[in-house]
Write the C-alpha cells for this entry.
Amino acid sequence: MLNEFKAFIAKGNVVDLAVGIIIGAAFTAIVNSLVADLINPIIGVITGGIDFSNLFINLGDGDYTSLAAAKDAGAPVFAYGSFITAIINFLIIAWVVFLIVKAVNRLKEATARKEAAAEAAAPAGPTELDVLLEIRDALKK
C-alpha cells in the first residue's frame, strides 16, 4: 500500500496540480494587493474618493459609518462594494491569465515553426519506393 501511495504521489499530474495550487494561492495574494493597494485608490481618485469596499446598504436598524462597524454590530447589510471589488479582482485575474496563455501559445507556435523549418531544411532520405526499387534492381543482377 505504501508503494502504491508513492507511485500515486510521483505521478506528474499530482505534482503539477500541487504546484498549480501553490502558485495560484501566491498569485491571488499578489492580485488582491494590486487591486486593494494600487487600482482601488486610482479608481477612488477618478470617482471622487469612493472606496468600493466600504459601500453597503444597511438592512436593519441603526446608523453605521462603515461596513466594519455594521458587521461588528451584527447588523444585516447588503455589501455591494465588496461585490464590486470581487468583480474588479476577477477581471484583473482573467486579463493576466489571458496574457499568460497568449504568451505561452506564441512561444509554442514559434517553437513549432522552428521545428518545421528544421525538418524542411534537413535532407530527405530515400522513400520506401526508392528502397524497394533498389532492392529489386540489386536482385536482378
Notes: The chain is about 75% helix and 5% strand.
